[in-house]
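Quick one before lunch.
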Amino acid sequence: MSYATTHDDHHDHKPTGITRWLFSTNHKDIGTMYLIFALIMFFVGGAMAMVIRAELFQPGLQFVDPLFFNSMTTMHALVMIFGVVMPAGVGLANWQIPMMVGAPDMALPRMNNMSFWILPFAFTLLLSTLFMKGGAPAGGWTMYPPLTLQTGDALPFLIFAVHLLGISSIMGAINIIATVFNMRAPGMTFMRLPLFVWTWIITAFLLIATMPVLAGAVTMMLTDKFFGTSFFGAAGGGDPVMFQHVFWFFGHPEVYILILPAFGIVSQILPTFARKPLFGYESMVYAAAAIAFLSFFVWAHHMFTVGMPLAGELFFMYATMSIAVPTGVKIFNWMATMWKGSMTFETPMLFAVAFVMLFSIGGFTGLMMGITPADFQYHDTYFIVAHFHYVLVTGAVFALMAGVYFWIPKWTGHMYDETLGKCHFWLSVIFVNVLFFPQHFLGLAGMPRRIPDYNVQFADWNMVSSVGGFVYGFSQLLFVYIVIKCIRGGAKATDQVWEGAHGLEWTLPSPPPFHTFTIPPQVTDATAHS
Ligand code: CU1
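Model of the copper (I) ion complex:
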């Protein structure tokens, strides 16, 4: 295939250097770019978290002014959600899905290229707002009006960046659906798809359904600010609370967009290191679909305190609590998969097991917040911050780390350094709990979120939390070192990679072939021979 518009006669010529990446239509290269981008943004968003934890290390204002602090909380969230967890998930999808379904590449390779290359421009726009008159957005990542309408020059840049991120996500989602629906190898029926593929199909539908809603919300805000409309302005007959309804109709499914691929990764890893098939494959698929479906009917649990009618409060409470049922099915199945398994604890397994335990903590605190009368106590406190960091850091990020450790030997042909991997895991798992567990106490004691200063009664646990944050943050540099070392060399990865596994994780259908775990499925990786 010729990429360059030259009179090159070499039809098998492959682009090298920068053009290989800039014009790439190769799902592996694009996957790599997504993952590297996510890793870079992980440190950008992480640096913002370090600013937040430094300021909160003790009471009083030490390092930053309050407006900049609020920009840090806002930008930290936007970067971590849209710049880290989502692109990393898409990166893993790009690498794995074509090979897992037996396709030579993604269905729409040029669109795949565009999906990725929109991201660096979107984040350049978003991060450039840090240097604009009036400062970066500071109204929280949820962008509620009227506060967010006070943003200075940055507002239209924020909105345009959100539009671009939505376009990128929707194109990526269309690509994944097109690939899985149309390009499966013969015999790869839907109920044989690896769980990672299943969770990504469901995630892709959530993306297509909700990203336009977010785009609509921020577009209404744009016209309110610059074109004289009053969608959210009470003075003109609008309603600021309507923004919250529209935003969270996107926002709650969005949290499942962030976590469902993580469920998929963990569902690949646990069977491998327990040397047993995944327990309850079909119920895993249906539970993931049920979680996604229910996620459209729970949005107002983020706004119990706005003054809804009692019927609304009750509806959203019961709907929210019902999601615990399919989630419980999944956690039960993960434990049953490990039960009496011949388990070993290499780094991917450590992260996956930690995921099951720590994500469950985040799930339970979520259930607590879903109880309407109790939520009036928790709303806008650090308890909420603790909850969603358990879900998104020890949940989503841990699963993404597990996925990288699990698959990087296949990607690079080298084993990563297992000793360093274990160091990275133990540093992460200990200090992430030092970082986030005390935030439950702070929240229950009444410390509000998004505030740069606090009453002295909160000083001790904030100091503990900040120490945990610094050590957790810096120990992620070890991950970068491990990845670079693995790319550059190391022990050669065998075909099976993981001892006792069958080397089928690459293309393993779940459930495995009839009553056995040893018969190879009739699926080939068309790219393996190129
Ligand atoms: Cu929610």
